[in-house]
Amino acid sequence: xxxxxxxxxxxxxxxxxxxxxxxxxxxxxxxxxxxxxxxxxxxxxxxxxxxxxxxxxxxxxxxxxxxxxxxxxxxxxxxxxxxxxxxxxxxxxxxxxxxxxxxxxxxxxxxxxxxxxxxxxxxxxxxxxxxxxxxxxxxxxxxxxxxxxxxxxxxxxxxxxxxxxxxxxxxxxxxxxxxxxxxxxxxxxxxxxxxxxxxxxxxxxxxxxxxxxxxxxxxxxxxxxxxxxxxxxxxxxxxxxxxxxxxxxxxxxxxxxxxxxxxxxxxxxxxxxxxxxxxxxxxxxxxxxxxxxxxxxxxxxxxxxxxxxxxxxxxxxxxxxxxxxxxxxxxxxxxxxxxxxxxxxxxxxxxxxxxxxxxxxxxxxxxxxxxxxxxxxxxxxxxxxxxxxxxxxxxxxxxxxxxxxxxxxxxxxxxxxxxxxxxxxxxxxxxxxxxxxxxxxxxxxxxxxxxxxxxxxxxxxxxxxxxxxxxxxxxxxxxxxxxx
Length: 484
Fold this sequence. Notes:
Elements lengths: L3 H15 L2 H8 L3 E6 L2 E6 L2 H23 L4 E6 L31 H5 L21 H10 L17 H12 L7 E4 L6 H15 L5 E5 H14 L2 H9 L3 E5 L8 H16 L3 E6 L11 H8 L2 E4 L5 H14 L6 H10 L4 H18 L5 H12 L9 H12 L3 H5 L5 H18 L3 H7 L4 H17 L1 H14 L3
């Protein structure tokens, strides 16, 4: 008979092999095991966002551990802890009667009211602070955007969610229900869309609270502005500007390390806003515990809210991003050309955009329509390989085996040793990413069940998201194959 403690301890151990410490603390350690009875694991979590994360991202590991311990299928039930308090809406100059006609179909809801229903415990008067910007107030809204360092270029509508549903939901929650998680700390490698999310939060916040005070800034700008106050003797104006915001969006906070005076000022700004129930959203290339020379009192405040991570886009997401960009620019690109770009430029969103810009310049200079040949010839110099060379599944498997120092026979075996399963996962991952092969095709060739291939792909993605050395190793494999 498996007890709840045995199940939970084994599950936490499994998650510890998949997640970085920050993610483990955010999503696993804040959950509470309630019971394990009738092959059903019941847990309690403090928020709707955590419930959705467990049900969409963590349930697979629960099922695997459950089968390992019981030899049978298990179910997961996630309950949200009841809360006796509700976050106050941001203070604006005057309540405005709600008018809701905004089209939110592009991200899964049909109206602001529909979206609010997704969250519990919203105050009864919260709707009084919502408004829709009418055509007559377009100019006013544009001025508000400009003053806040925002633009219509970065919104939730044109953000491709892909693997980042968790981050997207957290960002949307910060805009729609400010103060629930404070701060919202968004971590991600350069070029993955953190700035887009910050500005989308600000844009949506201003649409719903048009009289509010919103400001987006980079950490470098914040520090330069603060430094200039000593020369200009404008410290009071600086503090008035930042400490009276309803929403502060600050980018690249990892740069604040070693800047002692700027850290002191940001600490006081943070406290002033948080104490008044105002929303703070922070973006960084590093998690709080990894930011060098960061004062402990700032570090503890950064981790007290919700820490989420932007993941690198998978192949399907990269294709969707490219389609989004080309549609916005009214450029027709054949699907095979889009797939080729997505397969060969996989590091980040910024690189994808740069590749597409190169193609657009070439098509104008050559006065011809975009096709696969033009795309390959335009981008081959950046990639450093002959685009006509085709890579096979067997070549991928051999390259991976050579890189990890194992044999193909070992990779094809049933061994569950880590030194064998890791290259096996990576080989199936590369077959999917580089060749766009279907799970059934890979499974048929290597005599596996297609669900096994699917799980290997997901496992490889988790490892690559968490392990920088492994990402470098995979990049070297791709380079040897002539695909990077």
